[in-house]
Amino acid sequence: MVRRRIRTALLSTAVTGSALAVAPLTATAAYADDVRVTYTCSSVITPTPTDSLMEIGITAPAVVRRGQDIDLKVTLHTLHGTIADRPPFDIKGWADVTVGGAGRGSVRAQGLTNTTPVHKGQEVRLTEGKATVKARHTGRYTFAPGAEVYVNTSDHSVTCKRKGGPTVAATTRVLPRRGEADGLRDTGPR
Questions:
Q1: DSSP calls for 124-186
Q2: pLDDT tens digits, residue range 147-166?
Q3: Distance of alpha carbon 127 from alpha carbon 36, whole angstroms
Q4: What pLDDT, in 10s, does the model give residues 67-95?
Q5: pLDDT digits (tens, 9 = 90+) for 36-66
């Protein structure tokens, strides 16, 4: 009776362990707090460039395999009030994302918008920004607010350029494809 329980427990452990070994890799979100970034912004209303502090949030999967897409979600939060009431979806824009680490370059997160009304004097939170990066190399990819942000409302547009270097907001670890070596030979662009 005791042998049967031990054999059953060992068999159960072996089955569970082998099931875990063949389970597909699923993307889990790796999110860092919003990063505060100073941008220099200008518009038709304010043609003289002025500094504007914003919080940019970037959500990325914690782990993907080489060859897969790294899907990014981006948010933008102004730390100053809007000059007028804005209905939902009146504010639209995009934000560049700087890619570093094992990846290089930048991508543009399109689709930023206010999904709720914003009243005069309130800070603006834009969500729904999306971008995709192809995981071409194994290693750690980093994502930071990029060089430019553009926002358009029903009555004017604002163009902003980042001051200073990028601050990492999220990371993704890119593993080798199934069946590849540990990936030590391929750690980034050449």
A1: EEEEEEEEEEE--SSEEEEEEEEEEEEEE-SS-EEEEEE-S-----EEEEEEPPTTS--STT-
A2: 999 999 999 999 999 999 98
A3: 16
A4: 999 999 999 999 989 989 999 999 999 99
A5: 999 999 998 888 999 999 999 999 999 999 9
Q: Is 1 exposed, middle or buried (CB count within 10 Å of its CB: 0-12, 13-18, 19+)?
A: exposed
How many of the other CB atoms lie within 10 Å of CB of 68?
A: 17
State the DSSP H helix or E strand holding residue 17, giving kind and residue range, or none if neither. helix 2-22
Residues ≥6 apart with Cβ < 8 Å to 154: 86, 90
Annotate 165-175 with b (16+ C-beta within 10 A) or e (fewer). Answer: ebeebbbbbbb
On whether the CB atoms of residues 66 and 186 are closer than 8 A, the answer is: yes
E-only strand ranges, 17-116: 29-31, 35-43, 50-61, 63-65, 69-81, 92-101, 105-113
- The predicted model scores a pTM of 0.79
Nearest by Cα to 147 from 114, 112, 107, 113? 107
Lookup result for tokens 């601050």: 167
